[in-house]
């Protein structure tokens, strides 16, 4: 039956709303753009590239409008699959409380941290509470309409178990392994997609560089405007880079490293803000130092000037990298802390504050100070929820934050502490292991980006230097114009200078977008992109310098005489 369910149902889209808000506006805008493009092409003489662009934009809008339901369903599937370990953990620990099953579904459906799963469970709650159908029927109904196969399989198994009279607590305890196995398969599949995407990324960059090289040299043969062709190169490379960034963003699982802001400014936040400020001030100082001291005394190539001025940004990136590593260390200690906390609560029967007082005397690595601060705030008995918020903000970890909330809510609703500790610590450790695999995959991805950046810069600069050398050669040839015809086309110096500016702009944009792609792929803080941004700038600058120098030397040693003899021979 799953094949008969409409894609609009799976994507939570109303057909009328889709037609009214997406399809009709997209078609209307596309028709208008087609008419405008046709009129402009008749009235004005437009370059071929501009014409293609004018007609391509409305086509892209139409394709997007047609594919929108499938894109929405796929995004929803990834969101559900990414949140399913938190859902199954929360579901399992709450099943030991005194709540009824309908109330349990209501609590899960109202929890924002479950994302798309919460919106799916709202349907179950409505079916049970408003339509008075059984819970297994509601689960089967939802299983046929969810875009996530992992979630659908879980709902089908759960419905069968409830029909069979299996105790929900015992079933969910056993089901943890199955669901986490499914999540691991999904997660590792995404990492495999990243490995495949590395190959695609290499192919795209190599193809774009190959095309750019011909476009740069092309005006010498065709006589076209090198400035316009340079803009085409810029547009092609920029589109490829942005496309790569978007694919990474929407295909990788949602697994952020940093906790969400809770309106609490921690010392970590203050350190990062100071690092941003210092980096910005150092960039200004470095620019002034170059203008007043270095430029009058030294002839530094433009790529190195840009890299040198922007180098202080690496300080902010390094500070954020240090904080991110500290978050990873806290993640490593959290499972042991939760195990100890829950087992002590179950064994002693004491209050949470008394157990924390006992545990705060023990060493939990980098998490120790956060645990002691949590105990002091809970001991004051002013606001327990806010005390946990400060603990989460202090750790800065997304995983610690979401599992701490699950633990806090489960204990508050009367769940069994020992059971809660076992479930949370086991699932938490499994997620940490998956993150280690992600970091290993990212290490090779970073290496590929570094290598491609150097090759990209070298090829681009080498092609540009070939164009410069041949252009200088053509300009020096003493051949009458009537014999030359359309064979030789000399590019004006302003055109070559414009292409150099385009290459410098590509240097900055490629480095920035590639650095952002790294951090989006690993789920880290985007501010750390500054660290990779500066490294990529220097790699690009070095590649450009080597490409121009080596090609200038090759074209200069006997190259001019040979080329001149060849051209004269052709003219005869």
Question: Which helices and strands occur, and which strands form pairs?
Answer:
Blueprint: H1 7-10, H2 15-43, H3 48-94, H4 101-109, H5 116-129, H6 135-143, H7 149-163, H8 168-222, H9 226-251, H10 267-297, H11 302-310, H12 313-348, H13 352-359, H14 368-380, H15 384-395, H16 398-412, H17 417-476, H18 481-484, H19 493-522, H20 529-556, H21 559-571
Helix pairs in contact: 2-3, 3-8, 3-16, 3-17, 4-5, 5-6, 6-7, 7-8, 8-9, 8-17, 9-19, 10-11, 10-12, 11-20, 12-13, 12-17, 12-20, 13-14, 14-15, 15-16, 16-17, 17-19, 17-20, 19-20
Pfam family, one: T2SSF
GO cellular component, one term: plasma membrane
Keywords: Cell membrane, Cell projection, Cilium, Flagellum, Membrane, Transmembrane, Transmembrane helix
Profile the largest sheet: none
What oligomeric state do the depicted chains represent? single chain
Mean pLDDT: 84
The value of Rg in angstroms is 30 Å
């Amino acid at each position: 039956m799953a094949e008969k369910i409409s894609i609009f149902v799976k994507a939570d889209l109303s057909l009328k709303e889709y037609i009214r808000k997406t399809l009709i506006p997209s078609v209307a805008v596309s028709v208008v753009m087609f008419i405008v493009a046709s009129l402009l092409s008749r009235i004005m003489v437009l370059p071929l590239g501009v014409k293609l662009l004018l007609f391509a934009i409305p086509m892209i809008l139409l394709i997007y409008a047609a594919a929108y339901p499938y894109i929405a369903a796929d995004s929803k599937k990834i969101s559900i699959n990414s949140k399913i370990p938190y859902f199954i953990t929360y579901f399992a620990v709450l099943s030991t409380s005194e709540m009824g099953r309908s109330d349990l579904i209501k609590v899960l459906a109202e929890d924002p941290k479950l994302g798309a799963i919460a919106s799916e469970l709202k349907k179950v709650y409505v079916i049970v509470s408003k339509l008075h159908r059984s819970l297994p029927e509601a689960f089967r109904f939802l299983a046929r309409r969810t875009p996530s196969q992992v979630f659908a399989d879980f709902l089908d198994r759960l419905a069968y178990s409830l029909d069979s009279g299996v105790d929900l607590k015992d079933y969910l305890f056993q089901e943890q392994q199955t669901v986490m196995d499914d999540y691991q398969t999904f997660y590792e599949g995404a990492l495999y997609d990243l490995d495949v995407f590395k190959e695609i990324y290499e192919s795209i960059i190599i193809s774009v560089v190959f095309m750019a090289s011909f476009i740069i040299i092309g005006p010498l043969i065709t006589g076209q405007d090198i400035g316009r062709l340079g803009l085409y190169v810029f547009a092609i490379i920029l589109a490829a880079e942005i496309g790569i960034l978007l694919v990474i963003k929407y295909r990788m699982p949602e697994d952020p490293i940093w906790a969400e802001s809770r309106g609490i400014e921690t010392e970590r936040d203050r350190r990062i803000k100071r690092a941003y400020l210092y980096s910005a001030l150092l960039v200004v100082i470095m620019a002034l130092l170059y203008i007043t001291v270095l430029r009058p005394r030294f002839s530094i190539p433009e790529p190195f000037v840009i890299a040198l001025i922007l180098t202080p940004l690496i300080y902010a990136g390094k500070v954020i990298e240090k904080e991110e590593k500290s978050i990873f260390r806290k993640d490593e200690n959290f499972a042991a802390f939760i195990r100890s906390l829950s087992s002590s609560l179950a064994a002693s029967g004491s209050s949470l504050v008394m157990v924390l007082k006992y545990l705060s005397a023990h060493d939990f690595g980098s998490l120790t100070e956060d645990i002691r601060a949590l105990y002091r705030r809970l001991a004051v008995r002013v606001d327990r929820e806010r005390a946990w918020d400060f603990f989460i903000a202090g750790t800065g970890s997304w995983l610690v934050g979401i599992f701490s909330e699950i633990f806090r809510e489960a204990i508050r609703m009367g769940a069994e502490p020992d059971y809660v500790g076992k479930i949370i610590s086991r699932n938490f450790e499994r997620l940490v292991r998956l993150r280690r695999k992600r970091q290993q995959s990212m290490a090779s991805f970073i290496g590929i980006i570094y290598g491609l950046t150097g090759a990209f810069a070298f090829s681009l600069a080498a092609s540009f230097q070939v164009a410069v050398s041949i252009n200088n050669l053509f300009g020096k040839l003493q051949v009458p114009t009537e014999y030359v015809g359309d064979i030789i086309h000399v590019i004006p110096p302003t055109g070559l200078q414009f292409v150099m500016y385009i290459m410098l702009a590509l240097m900055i944009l490629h480095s920035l977008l590639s650095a952002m792609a790294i951090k989006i792929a690993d789920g880290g803080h985007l501010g750390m992109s500054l660290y990779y941004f500066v490294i990529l700038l220097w790699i690009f600058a070095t590649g450009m310098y080597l490409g121009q120098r080596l090609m200038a030397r090759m074209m200069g040693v006997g190259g001019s005489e040979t080329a001149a003899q060849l051209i004269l021979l052709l003219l005869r």
